[in-house]
Design goal:
mainly beta; 3 helices; 14 strands
Amino acid sequence: MKNIFILSSLTIWASVVTAQGIPVSQNTSNRNALLEEFTGVNCQFCPDGHRIADELVAANPGRVVAVNIHSGSYASDPTDFRIQDGESLDNTFSISGYPTGVVSRAQGNATSSRGAWAGQISPILSETSYVNLGMQADWNITTNEATITLQAYFTGNSTASSERLHLYLLQDDIEGKQSAGSTYYPEMVLPNGLYNHKKMLRNMFFGLNGITLPNNSLGSLFDTTFSVSIQDFYPSVSGSTNVMTEIGKMSFVLFTTDQSNRNVETAI
């Protein structure tokens, strides 16, 4: 079982510390849930998926983390929000319909429709986690770099042979067309008629497989600090640059999986 963590939006003038920041807590806590929603701009029920995901996050503050992954053919017309990382995830989970959710990458219910998400998330939140995650990010607006510290502390022994650490970059408030289904979530329709896309995956820092942690037994601590350059634009898979990077709209999601990239432990 693993911990997921979402960092509040970056502020460009100061260090950002999470609710569980650095140093990471060594106290045992319950799992949180990660909802990876595969979505698009041209699928009828995708905005309904956004609404349901937002309601689950609001009903479980700090316990549920949602990510919108624009992938597949429904995400390429009229605006191409696809990135290669999202396409890689789409292929990994063999997504064939949109919206489709992957709840904590659990075995046995790898993908599910939006009506099943609440029922899959509920039992996860009452389970004890064996790893805590902490994070701190410092943003340098002069060099356009973020210096990030990540920690993982095991409050118990992992049931997996190994654990992988993953870090996503998300962006909120991206204006764009939603050619189908926006009436299912009218709150996201802007006065100019465009749709307010939130929690959009923009990058996976460690790729699809993440970082393999060197130890996953009781009392072990993983600690790393690195610097990354945030690009001005994240090109779509077609090579266009439809999304401009806005630092103040960005957030991170940190989580772990087992050696097969499944079974997310929890979110912080």
